[in-house]
Fold this sequence. Notes:
Chain A has 145 residues and is α+β, with helices and mostly antiparallel strands.
Amino acid sequence: MQSFTPQEVEINRSGISLERLDGEVVIISFETGKYFHLNGPGADILYMIDQGIPQAKWEATLGKLFPSFRLEPVEFENFLLEAISERLLIFGSAKTVTDILLPNDYSRSEWTVPRLTVFDDLADLLLVDPIHETGAEGWPIAKND
Amino acid sequence: MRIGIDVSTLVFSKQLTGVERVLTEINRGLTSLLDSQKYEVEPFVTRLDFKKPEQIPDFLKSDPVFNKALRPIDSFDILFFGGINANLPIGELMRLKSERNVKMVALVHDILPITHPEWFMTPKFASGREASISSRVLFQFYLQASLSLADHLILTSQHVKNELMKFRWNQLPTISVLHLGAYKSRPVREVRPRTGINTLYVSTITIRKGHAELLSAFEILWAQGLDISLTLVGNRGWQIDDFISRLTAHDEYGRRLLWRQGLSDLEAIQLYGQSDISFITSEDEGFGLALEEGLANGVKVIARDIPVFQERSFPNLFFFNGGPKKLCEKILEVSTIPYEPLSAGRIRTMADFVADLAHILKAL
């Protein structure tokens, strides 16, 4: 089990770019150059951590939005430890916020395991003009000729 | 002052379309506009394994920046990113910003893969393996990296800026909106006897460009007995198989309905010279350069009534709002309106765009 609570960590704002759009979060690490993606429950968990909501209060918020909400300790610990090891989260002062509203920016349904997807080499994917320089399949599929 | 131009996109380019065309105009313009005694404009790439091709494509052979020797990224005072390149050495660039106060300027052409993901495809790696993210998220990687690094962001329309501001993102640099422009202002009409009305639409054929609606409008006009032709100029894009089938099987195809691909600039200019009206019927654009290109080439332009086109106000520019019937009515109306001769410099050009860009670079 983790030896700390989510309240003891905070977003490493000076070391990353983090933006949320329609329930999807993209993070770019300025230190490693890696890109990260979270969606749905993962994005909401990160939001709760960022706002400093005690973990004990999460069920009240998430349970209302996700009928099948169930945060397995091991899965959550893996999520948290990965975010810490990538220095997306750093240890900081404990916060005392008790309640928040999650952004109403996507349609919530099934609860899924919060997952942090890491991308560390996008060379093949990110050099394509999204409007013209593509094959018949369209962007981001590059032309082969 | 040494200004670095990211040529990573050009290194991989095989043909002069879209972004490449803008980039080469910027390279030419900055080289001639900036005082060479004060400014050196030189190229860099963002990864060591990005190499110039052994065979330089024709359109890059005269590029005054691309053909200089690549310099290391840490040898510049200002870095300009004008292509779509998220292979950015973010750690190194952040260090250059903090330790040497290197300034960075990014040009973002549009954000359509985020605002209209339905027009784009699931990403695949070069190996053919499908990526586990959508094209929308992939594009957000690029956009977010650009916004994080840039001291100054250039957008090509207020519309794109408005869309971007709706995201309510945290890290936004200074933003300037600079409209692109026609490549050359050449309002020269070909004087020759013609019959009927000749029209033109220069655009890659993709689903968002409105070709199907345009063809439907022409079917109404032909049914009414109007002597009018439509020439589509542009390569086949994607998600467009149904329209291509409809186009090539059409009764008028090869007669009053033509499709030309792979035209040279000169051939396109000649076609404009033979035309009365050009169209730009896209459902959305970052800018939509075909609008200025049509006007600069001396035709009346009918554009869809969408925010990005409404930002422009020029003589000979007309808007339609609605489906094929409304478009049909607008074509009939515009065909009777005399062409208004343009004074020199009336249509914004790429030279105007680059001059504005140079001003921003010099002020950093």
